[in-house]
Amino acid sequence: MAKTIIEPFRIKMTEPLPMTTRGQRERFLGDAKFNIFRLRASQITIDLLTDSGTGAMSAAQWGAMMTGDETYAGSESYFQLERVVQELTGQKYVIPTHQGRASEHILFSVMVKPGQIVLANAHFDTTRANVEYLGGTAIDLVIAEASDPRNEHPFKGNIDLARLEQHLRTQGDHVAMVLMTITNNRGGGQAVSLANLKAARELAHRFGKPFFLDAARFAENAWLIKQRESGQGQRSAREIAQEIFRLADGFTMSAKKDGLVNIGGLLCLNDDALAERARSLLILTEGFPTYGGLAGRDLAALATGLTEVLDESYLEYRLASVRYFYNLLDKLGVPLMRPVGGHAVYIDAAQFAPQIPKEELPGVALVNELYLEGGVRAVEVGTLMFGKPGEVAPLELVRLTFPRRTYTQSHVDYLGEVVASVFARRHELSGLRITRQPQFLRAFTAELEPLAPCAPAKGGR
Ligand code: F0G
Fold first, then answer.
1. C-alpha 452 to ligand 1 mean position (Å)
2. 22-51+312-450 CATH, one of 3.90.1150.10, 3.30.230.30, 2.130.10.10, 3.30.230.70
C-alpha cells in the first residue's frame, strides 16, 4: 500500500498565483508601512494570513449554489441547512448569521448582563470583544501546559478543571455561561479532549450554568480526538462531532472555517425562550430567521460543506498537510508551538530571533522577512496583535495558517524552503517600531518602521 496521503480531490478550476521579485516586494512592503495587513492580494504569492473564508469550495458546493433558493421567507435552502445541522448537532434551533462574530454578538446580548462573567478555555479575540462590549468579563482558564510552546501535551486546548470549579464556586452568582473554543485558535490550534469537554459540561451543569461551544473548527478537533484520545480511535469523526455537539446547550460557529464556505455563521440553541429572543435580535441586525444575513445560495453551500468536512479522507489530508509542513520545519530545528495543531503551524518568534526584544516585535520582523524572501504572508500573533502601548504579549508567535483545499504539496515544499532560508540568517533579523497606531485592534492598520535598514536585495525569487 502506498504511504503518501494525497489530496483527495483533483483541480478543475485554477487561479493564478501572483509572482513577484524581491525588489518589488521590498517596495510593496515599504508602501504598506511594514504591515502585511496593508498588502494587496496581487502582491502575495502564498497567503497564509488566515484559514477563514479563504478555502476552495467543491464542485458539489458550487452546484448547490446554482440551485440555492433565494426566497426571502421560507427558503428551501434554509430547511436543507436546518436538517443537516440538526442531524449533526442535535440542536433544536438553527439560526444562520453572516459570520461567527455576529452569532457571538447575538448570543451574548441575550445571555450576558453587565457585570457577568464568561468562563472559557480561551476566548477568541472577537468573542472576548463581544463579551466586553456588552459589559461582561471574559476569563480564560486554559491549562498551564498551553503557555509553554515546547510542552507536547496532546490537548493543550483543555480547560483547567480545578480553576473552573473554583471560579464557579466563588463567583457562581455572576457566571453567565461556560464556553469551550474548539480548537483553541489563540493557543496554537490546539484541540480539547472529549473527556475535558464532558467534565467541563458536568461542572457547568452542577453549578446550574449553561455550557456552550465556539465550534469554528469542530471537525479538526474531532479528528484530533480520534487520533490522540484513548478509546476514540475506532469511532468516526462524525460520531465524535455528534457527541460533542450534544453535550452543549448551544453553540456559535464561524462557518468560514470547518463549514468550508467563504462566508457564513451559525448560532444554535436548545432553549425555546432564548431562541425566541435571539431570533428577534437576528431580525433587527442580520435578517429574517430563514436567511440571517446570507443569500440562499450561501445556505446551500454551507449545508453541503458541513457534510463534506467530516469526510475522513478530507480530514486525514487536511491534518496531514499541516503536519507535513510542521515536520519540515521541525527537522530544520525551527522553534515551533508544539504539538502540531489543526489549522496552522505557529513559529515561536521569540526563540527564532532572541536578539530582538519583545518591544521591537520579533514576530513582525519574522513575518516581514518571510514576505520579502518568498512572497509568503503569515501573521504575527504577539505583541503587535495583543499588546497595548507599553505592554508586551506573553507569547510572540507567527501563525502560518492553511486555507482549506487550496494549496498543494509543492506549495508546502516551497514554504519550507522560504522558512529555511530566513532561518539560516535569523541572526541578522532586527526589530521594528510602531510609528502610528489606532486605539483599538492596532495590528490591522498600524504603521511601522524597521529599526535597522533593510538587508540589501540578495538573489531571492
Ligand atoms: N471563533 C474563533 C475560534 C475564530 O477563530 C474566529 C475567527 C471567530 C470565532 C470569529 O469568526 O471571523 O467568522 O466572525 N477567526 C479568524 C482567524 C478571523 O483568522 O483566526 P468570524
1. 34
2. 3.90.1150.10
Nearby residues of 69 by Cβ (< 8 Å), 6 or more positions away: 75, 76, 77, 78, 296, 300
pLDDT per residue as tens digits for the range 97-138: 999 999 999 999 999 999 999 999 999 989 999 999 999 999
Q: State the pLDDT confidence band at 460, using cuts at 50, 70 and 90.
A: very low
**Overall residue count recorded for the chain in this entry:** 461
Domain 59-308 CATH class label: alpha beta
Distance 31 CA to ligand 1 centre (A): 28
User: For position 453, what pLDDT does the model report?
Assistant: 62
Q: Is residue 101 lining ligand 1, measured as CB closer than 6 Å?
A: yes
Res. 337: pLDDT tops 90:
yes
Read out DSSP for 278-302? HHHHHHHHT--TTTTTS-HHHHHHH
Adjacency order of strands within the sheet including 265-269: 93-97, 265-269, 250-254, 211-214, 175-181, 117-120, 137-140
Closest protein CA for atom 21 of ligand 1: 100
Residue spans of the domains in the chain: they are 22-51+312-450, 59-308
Q: Is 185 touching ligand 1 by the criterion CB < 6 Å?
A: yes
Q: Measured in angstroms, how far is the CA atom of residue 345 from the centroid of ligand 1?
A: 16
Measured distance CA(289)–CA(95) in Å, rounded: 6
And the C-alpha cell for 228?
A: 490522540
- Location of C-alpha cell 457527541: 243
pTM for the model: 0.96
Single-letter amino acid code for the residue at 428:
E
Which whole number is the average pLDDT over 279-305?
97
Name residue, grid cell 469542530. 218
Q: Is 221 in the pocket of ligand 1 (CB under 6 A)?
A: no
* Closest ligand 1 atom, residue 343 Cα: 20
User: Does any ligand 1 atom lie closer than 6 A to the CB of residue 214?
Assistant: yes
Whole-angstrom distance, CA of residue 253 vs CA of residue 96: 10
Residue reference for cell 462590549? 133
Q: Which protein residue's CA is at the shortest distance from atom 16 of ligand 1?
A: 52
